[in-house]
């Protein structure tokens, strides 16, 4: 077999990866999941059933109240119903089809090894994923329901990719964790993941998020990359920046939210008994 010809001088060799074509709009909450290559659809299917079961378990009362509200609307007077319908028409897309507001909706990112599930109220992504991790780590739960899913990352909220919007996002997401009156000084770290993203440099993101945490040095929170109390996750994908905050058990107990590693550890412990 002959040797493969080298590219001519001055020519760049082709990169062996695909550029993602999917887009995430700003102001989205949800969950990223990494998965085995070329098994993105299967991973989404696995997660779809898993997530829905957990939604039914955690939020059935909230969803029932939403249904009751819809039924109450049917009892409105004719005049009030007309007003309500006119308000709803303003949000109807041009094709005339009213958009359904699913609690869970998978967005096709067309990105290798990554899927994204958009969530709506009452789902809170960080709490929701933490509940799932508790289930996964339960030593009495040895039934693994996912084959292709690897790691889950919650996104509390997201914004468009600019430094100004990043600051606003950080102020919004970090407030309840670091800026509550009377909160004791916390150790924190910032973890940034960038996919098909080059709008803002990684270190610039970390510095700005850290500045917001400490309010420019006014608060006593300190950086600790290994023994943190809180980890700020920043997920950058194309024109979107998402953010969430997780506790130290992310690192210690839940294997950085890696489902595969959690089950592998449990299986080894079971075999060792």
TrEMBL record:
GO terms for molecular function: RNA binding. One of its GO terms (biological process) is tRNA modification. Keywords: RNA-binding. Pfam families: THUMP (PF02926). It comes from the Eukaryota. Residues 137-247 form the THUMP domain. CDD domains: THUMP_THUMPD1_like. This is LAMI_0D02102g1_1. It comes from Lachancea mirantina.
